[in-house]
Amino acid sequence: MGMTPAISPDTREEVRISEQAATPWQTVVWNDPVNLMSYVVHVFRTYFGYSKQESTRLMLAVHHDGHAVVAQGAREQMELHAQAMHDYGLWATVRRAE
Question: In what residue span(s) does the Adaptor protein ClpS core domain sit (predicted)?
Answer without folding.
Answer: 23-93
